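Reopening this one. Same input as before:
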Amino acid sequence: MNAYTRFVPETEPSAPVHDVYTLTRGGNLAQIVLDGKTYQLRITRAGKLILTK
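Same output, byte for byte:
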């Protein structure tokens, strides 16, 4: 699966599903805003996600 392959869940999810590579535009960092505060979502080299303020 490459960075732009769309993930399609097998069952209907109970919450919205977002592909992380779409959020990061193929990179390893995305900014997410909640109540005027910006958070960074980062993909580590090990393939894990870290969300920081």
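So the earlier flakiness isn't reproducible anymore. For the record, The CA atoms of residues 10 and 17 lie 12 Å apart.
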